[in-house]
Amino acid sequence: MNAASSLKNVPPDAPDRAPAAGLPPLPVIGGLTPFSSVDWPGQLAAVVFIAGCPWRCHYCHNPHLQARERHLHWTQVMAFLQSRRTLLDAVVFSGGEPLSEPRLPELIAAVRALGFKAGLHTAGIYPARLAAVLPMLDWVGLDIKTTASRYDTLTGRRGSATPVANCLDQLLQSDCAFECRTTWHPDWLPEPELLELAQDLKQRGVKHFALQAYRSAPGSPATVFPSDATKHALAASFTCFTYR
């Protein structure tokens, strides 16, 4: 989900209070989507975008969220969520990379206290931070961007495949529901390698996999498509396969 136009219908509010001495800085909220039926399969959710991501994936749909720049106060987010109790099922923390936010555990606890389920979109950059919040989460969408050998080229960072593998291991060993998903374009992941990636995920125990078509801009139509044979092979590999 793209964060553009995410401030519509969000009530104005006073800025967050400054943190007490010794606490992490105020949360850096990049935006809010008030309603989504696609960011957590089967749930009606609000999406809170955390600003900040250390990776520089060239196909990123939210490049304006790579820098740690606040566009919305947490008090505004909470006021909106208070008004949507019983109307929404869940809150998904997305980004950017939501695990870049030091106060994410507090934010998750706050939305759970309102009665919402808590979900997370992550690229798997911060395994220790995932471990800290995993017991608080009901669902995770883990980006598996490409094969291990291609990760560094895609993300612009060395050794970027290692933390992703660690995060996947944590999810496989947990009771938390999760989905692995790959945004696909043949320029960075030819179909034979996509199938190899899928087989690796299957062998590791992944049950839910989504293939997301690359789009040059959020909401624009896809221009390249995997073959029917590839989609059939992927569907046969997982308990639940989705092509978006």
From TrEMBL:
Keywords: Iron, Iron-sulfur, Membrane, Metal-binding, Oxidoreductase, Plasmid, S-adenosyl-L-methionine, Transmembrane. It is an enzyme of class 1 (oxidoreductase). This is Putative ribonucleotide reductase activating transmembrane protein (NrdG). It comes from the Bacteria. Residues 40-244 form the Radical SAM core domain. InterPro entries: Aldolase_TIM, NrdG2, Radical_SAM_PqqE_MftC-like, rSAM, rSAM_sf. Its cofactor is [4Fe-4S] cluster. Its EC number is 1.97.1.-. GO terms for molecular function: iron-sulfur cluster binding; metal ion binding; oxidoreductase activity.
